[in-house]
Amino acid sequence: MTASSITVQSVTETIAEAIENVVSRVPESRERAVPEPALAARKLARKAARRAAALSGTLALPPGALGMLTVIPDLIAIWRIQAQLVADIAGLFGRELQLTRTHMVYCLFRHAATQLARDVVVRTGERLVIRQLSGGAMRSVLTTVGLNVTQRVAGTAASRWLPIVGAAAVAGYAYFDTMQVAKTAIKLLETPMLTAPA
After folding, report:
1. Could you read off the pLDDT of 9-23 as tens digits, one per residue?
2. Is 153 a residue whose pLDDT tops 70?
3. In the predicted model, what is the mean pLDDT of residues 109-122?
4. What is the SS3 assignment for the chain?
5. How, if at all, do strands 127-131 and 193-196 pair?
6. Does the pLDDT value for residue 99 go beyond 70?
7. Phi-psi region for residue 31, left (φ > 0), alpha (ψ -120 to 50) or beta?
8. Has residue 58 been placed in a domain?
């Protein structure tokens, strides 16, 4: 094993643990059911995306090695904003009590890890069957997501060396990523769901 593969593996494990900490509990929704939940959810998503972009852009301002130290705290902060957003969207749809850790992982990372969609969700007619993951299966999924995130972070690491331009790029991606999470959550919550055992 080379030093770089050990580094990638340790970063992947760190990121997988960070994700596990974020999704270890589903946040309580701060929203109540409304007559037009999709419309309210999109408004809420834009607000959360602006907040994520501002936070991420600020954390990307320190240049060079100092900027690299902010990557994982930045990711954790963004995921927490996004997890709360998913819970709040579920509240708007009146389905907050149906939200599980597996739903949360699916909403947060479906757009970044296409394999995740195949592992967790099956469409049967008009319904989505959500496979609830056992502890070992959840850990396996989180490791896969962690590897995807590690590869994405490595691809954007250069932006941390260009303070202003890099911060703008990182902020833009945080906004886009948060909007994708909201889009996944809205689509999931608009569809009747069934839960399959692990």
Report:
1. 777 788 778 888 888
2. no
3. 61
4. CCHHHHHHHHHHHHHHHHHHHHHCCCCCCCCCCCCCHHHHHHHHHHHHHHHHHHHHHHHCCCCHHHHHHCHHHHHHHHHHHHHHHHHHHHHHCCCHHHCCHHHHHHHHHCCCCHHHHHHHEEEECCEEEEECCCHHHHHHHHHHHHHHHHHHHHHHHHHHHCHHHHHHHHHHHHHHHHHHHHHHHHHHHHCCEEEECC
5. parallel
6. yes
7. beta
8. yes
Stretch 158-172: mean pLDDT: 69
> Is residue 16 one of the residues assigned to a domain?
no
Per-residue confidence (pLDDT) for residue 196, from 0 to 100:
47
Number of structural domains in the chain:
1
For residue 119, the enclosing domain spans 32-196
195 bridge partner residues: 130
